[in-house]
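Bumping with the actual sequence this time:
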Amino acid sequence: MLVRGHRVVGHGDPHALRVRWLLDTPLSQLFALAKGTFASMPGWSDKRVLGVLEHDVIFVARAKGRPAGYVALRRAEAGAIVVEQLFVAPGHEGRGIGHQLLAYAEGYAIAERALPLRIVVEKTNQQARSFYRRSGFVPVEPELFELILPRTD
């Protein structure tokens, strides 16, 4: 499922980070960014990544008109929204793009009335584990982190 729409962060500044639901970014471009960074890592699967990009809800961060990262989300059992992939393109790290994408994931999950927002993080990826902990996620299994979301009743 692809959601269409947009919201601009830093309105008025032509160089500001813009986060949008997948609108005008070809999936092949997002796939190439991810593959160029992660294809050599254990567990990489072209088929899995392409499947996520084709079927999940995607928010794309753009900086200076080019993709700078994306987050892919899917609904799971028990009312959870799962972050399938959160990717910041090389050269864009340390600019808050990951935090902005995660904020969009949280907002989407709340709007969808999800109870938790979850992400699987490998035990060896200490940088990502630290990022999610700082963002309020807690480990609930060795590789599963969860953020309990506010209810919107």
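The tokens above came from a reply further down the thread. The chain has four helices and eight strands.
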